[in-house]
Write a structure and sequence with these properties.
The chain has 431 residues and is mostly helical. The protein contains 17 helices and eight strands. It has three domains: 89 residues, Fumarase C, Chain B, domain 1; 226 residues, Fumarase C, Chain A, domain 2, CATH 1.20.200; 58 residues, no CATH class. The longest helix has 36 residues. The protein binds arginine. Arginine (ARG) binds next to helix 6.
């Protein structure tokens, strides 16, 4: 590794300690290296605006930062253990190319605000992807809720309860993913604050042009207080993981449903072959591995959230503990978004089996209809309930799933799904 930026002449660092400090940090920094470079450009412009670097120096620094981004993208520049971290690598490269001009880039900034701003930009990007995935799934759920509708059993406690429909199943997940998209949007707005210019957490004796860096990096606002910038590290990451977690909890329930519905016992849903795998020993098996991994993905997000929460038992100011928040968040966010990205296609292609679902609707599932019909005739509901319980086994006489569903007129139920309301809500998020 090149000599760390902070090593003073004469001191010697034990190699084992150095390895412990570094861990996999520099490799993790690859994830947001391009964001770190973009923020460095904005910082250079800010320095030029207050005369700390002259116009020629700013031009040279920005040109070399662009070149570094290009080299990193095409693999000519490799961010690895030669460097302590991505932040020092930027300065090392600029110094190698531009000598003293390169050494000016770090004026008025710290790796503490560098890591904050790079992470913040990365998180904003991931929340935009989260919103896109949730909206895509919501759109398909709405289309399928509005399209062909088949009767199916509705369960509570995993026991057959009342007649339901595939439209109701899809409408429920449509609204869930609209809420998740909305939460992604709100969280993005909430974290849309520029920490660059807070330096090590206490500002600097320079009139940094923080308004410029805020605008140049596309932030909605400046994170004003230099001390709050540090206090928000981890707190904002947790909010992002919660937003992703919310979508993945919905996905987990959906995957749970599917993993039951595709069993031989239910047989309600058929999935295309791509979503299943074979067994290495049992020739007869087709296993729903994809569905199971979709269901499992929430665990990685929850783990990342827990890891950060545990790290945040800290006094104010930068503490190196915070470095350990990166691995978890990258892993959790990647897992989560990969799972959500797969969902729209699965929703398009899953097929219901009308015959199996109809066969699973038993006569007693009309008992609630019978009781409520009696109540409408003036029988006190508790009495009607008791009478319907006694005759539940024959509640299906003269009834069909279609009739039961057509009468389900409470707003949000089968006969009044109000998909137009949901569509408008989703439309509101398209702006
Ligand atoms: N890798 C460090 C982190 O993620 C960057 C900031 C280092 N700052 C420091 N003062 N050692 O937190």
């Amino acid at each position: 590794m090149a000599t760390p930026l902070w090593q003073k002449t004469g001191s010697k660092i034990d190699a084992k300690i150095m390895r412990f400090l570094a861990g996999d940090d520099v490799l993790l920094d690859r994830e947001f290296f391009l964001h770190d470079i973009a923020a460095s450009k904005a910082h250079v412009e800010g320095l030029a605006n207050i005369g700390v670097v002259n116009a020629d120096e700013a031009t040279a620094l920005k040109r070399e930062l662009d070149a570094l981004a290009t080299d990193f993208r095409n693999g000519t520049f490799v961010l690895d253990e030669h460097f302590e971290d991505g932040h020092s690598a930027i300065e090392a490269r600029l110094t190698e190319r531009l000598g003293d001009t390169g050494r000016k880039v770090h004026t008025g900034r710290s790796r503490n605000d560098q890591v904050l701003v790079a992470t913040r930009l990365w998180l904003k990007e991931k929340l935009a992807a989260l919103e896109t995935h949730c909206k895509a799934s919501a759109r398909i759920c709405l289309d399928r809720a509005a399209g062909e509708s088949l009767p199916m059993p509705g369960y509570t406690h995993l026991q057959r309860a009342v007649v339901s429909s595939t439209s109701m199943w899809f409408a429920g997940f449509a609204e869930a993913f609209i809420d998740d998209a909305w939460r992604a949007r709100q969280t993005r707005d909430w974290i849309d604050a520029n920490p660059l210019g807070s330096a090590a957490g206490y500002g600097v004796n320079l009139k940094l042009d923080r308004d410029h860096t805020t605008r140049a990096l596309g932030f909605a606002r400046m994170q004003v207080s230099a001390t709050y910038a540090q206090l928000s590290r981890g707190k904002f990451e947790m909010a992002v993981l919660e937003a992703i977690g919310s979508a993945l909890l919905d996905l987990r329930r959906l995957a749970w449903d599917l993993s039951l519905f595709i069993t031989g016992e239910f047989g309600f849903v058929h999935l295309p072959d791509e979503y299943t795998t074979g067994s290495s020993i049992m020739p007869n098996k087709r296993n729903p591995d994809v569905i199971e991994l979709l269901r499992a993905s929430y665990a990685s997000v929850a783990a990342a959230r827990t890891e950060i929460e545990q790290l945040l038992s800290l006094p104010s100011g930068y503490q190196r503990d915070l470095q350990f928040s990166k691995g978890g968040i990258f892993h959790g966010v990647h897992r989560g978004l990969m799972a959500l990205e797969l969902l729209p296609d699965l929703l398009v292609r899953m097929q219901w089996s009308d015959v199996a679902m109809r066969a699973a609707i038993e006569p007693a599932m009309y008992a609630t209809d019978v009781a409520i019909e009696q109540a409408v005739q003036g029988v006190p509901f508790r009495e009607a309930y008791r009478a319907a319980a006694e005759t539940a086994a024959s509640a299906g006489q003269g009834r069909t799933p279609e009739r039961s569903l057509a009468a389900r007129t409470s707003p949000g139920a089968h006969a009044d799904l109000r998909l137009d309301v949901l569509r408008a809500r989703l439309g509101g998020l398209e702006q």
